Predict the 3D structure of the following.
Amino acid sequence: MRQQLTDQSPQPRSPQPSSRQSIFATLGHLAYRYRRLVVLLWVAVLLVGGLFAPRLDSVLHSTGTTYELGEAARADRLLEDRLGLDARALTVVFEYADSGPRPDLQPLLSALAALPAVESVSQTMVPETAGAGQASVEAGRRVDYRSIGLSQAAGDTHAAIAALLALLRDDTPPGVASYLTGKAVVDYEAQIISKADLVRAEALSLPLTLIALVLIFGSVVAALLPVAMAMATVTVTSGLIYAIAQSFEVSIFAVTLTTMLGLGVGIDFTLVMVSRFREELALRPPEAVPEAVVATMATAGEAVFYSGLTTCIGLLSLLLFPVVLLRSLGMAGSLVVLMSVLAALTLVPALLGILGLQVNRWRLYTPRPEGGFWGQFARQVIRYRVGAIAAVVAIILVLMAPFWQAQWGLGDVNALPAAAQARRGVDVLEKALGPGRTTPIQLVVTTANGSDILAADSVKALYPLVESLVADDRVASVQSLFNLDPSFDLATYQRLYQNPGQIPLASVAAAVARLSNGGTTLISIDSATDGNDPQSRALVRDLRGRSLPGLTLTVGGEPAKSLDTIDIIVQRSPWAIGAIFVVTFVSLTRLFKSVVMPLKAIFLNVMSIGASFGALVFVFQQGHFQNVLDFTPVGYLDILLPIVLFCVLFGLSMDYEVFLLARIKEAYDRTGNNTHAIAEGLECTGRIITSSALLTIIVTASFAFTSIIFVKALGLGIAIAVLIDSTLIRSILVPASMGLMGHWNWWCPTIGRRSFSS
């Protein structure tokens, strides 16, 4: 049955696409013809997504920042399987005044041990010297700490942590400060903080975005469409992630990137579609709404498709990294971009077909015509193209300069705000015991043939190893079965361990029970430096390079896990970046029928991303603007950050490139005049690209004021790159370089042209 328009009379017929029309024009015709059905289908999808999206937090429990298939992860499994040491173990830290009687912590410790999720509360995970568990943190203050083992049947770790925190809050004795810390607590607090930050970022960005859209369009209805589309795609994507998380581990930060990208990209795509629709309406009689929808899809729709494709390419490359955080962001980011493209190519044209001229309803003012500003600007840039290129390249090189001083680490508890429970606990312990004590290197030693690790030959091999570690300047302390007493020599240890079940010294027997089991023993090494320090990493590499006859050494602990993650990122990065370049080149060559334009687009994107990286080193590694952004610099950048930023920014930057070049190509195909095409392309897209960039900056910059450093840096990095890209790159460098290259912009080998035209 023929669909009827509701906003005008007489009712126009849907235009029938000719055989020469593009697939996007055909899609526009179908979206208009079945516009009410399309809207109803999207409403149904949105309702389903809205049903599951609020439950997403219940299935996300970890940050997933480390590589879980490396040697350090194998060490964790060995410790758990053979020695019963759970990687989920937590640490509770007590701080109190040094003067006066020592506070009685036993009732609190007993209450902690009585919780259903707690299996044990011990003083430390490994034996200590006299005075174990206590150290001076500063003048007049003392520290006491305990290890808390969670039961394997505890189920929801976050629920167990919540119960522990509640008990510590209510039952800690007066005058004592208590802190709960550990990897699981970091994940727990990261989830809570991220959720609060997300609400705050949305509350800041959405009103500002809506105000900006009203100023851009001058119409409330036109301004509401991009915001509504973006929120719809975020909701649907969140529901999809909930379903995926039932079977696969998904990082907590997937929600943040989904919201950040969903709002930014969703608003951008809808902005482009609505702007082109209004432009097409202005060129036609009032009853020609169907033709305006088809024309919008044939032009802006195609640009949105290829823009979304390039964005997805970058995000999907994150799946090449075997790190939960990166794979989660790649999955979530590509899903939300895909949903944004689907909405822009189906729901948006359907709504535009229903609204017709009503898209301009509730007009507050009529935007003034630009009077050819962008076209004149493009001609001036082309006129002085050599100087313009030199000036912009010089500015970008200056912005990139700090990047060459980058130091890499892996985000740990320091990524949390200073007031976070887990971070405060670690800070107190590090002041009392030294930086390496909170993240020990765990050397797991196993016999190759399954024999007893305490046999004379094994002791003979391990005793000098421990001696060399104790003498190493990079080591603060060593806890093992081979340096329990400085008066014991090799022969003494061999005699003691001849019969491990009948050791006469109770302290040695207890140590043997904790640190060994059959063919396995643990040597715990406290580095003299922080786990992200190059000296600690060098120590891990040295340990991995050692070999002992008849023994297998497996190095674990947080410093080793950090090193494993950095190594795998370095190994996989060239493949991911290469995949992005190749697939982007092929897709853009097909769009522009040129091999020069894709190569130049890739090069310009790398320049804007490099400038953003330099700014992040300047801010987050070197500590500039730390008071404004409210963070404490840690002296390095999280190595996961540039990978995520590159993959996200490459696609976002390509958005503007595709929008601009598609309009330039449209003009060039019509006129054959390179200079005129550049001027017309910039004239038609200058305002929309600037507006789109402004909206993206508003959305992403709001995340720069969140609490977690990784999210803060991600939001600021995207905002800086988009600012550079929309001003220096798209407005100056693109027209200047295209003016310099002339007709060579559109060169493509004959074979390639035939292939991409088929």
Q: What stands out?
A: Residues 559 and 677 are 56 Å apart (CA to CA). Confidence is low (pLDDT under 50) at residues 1-20, 124-134.
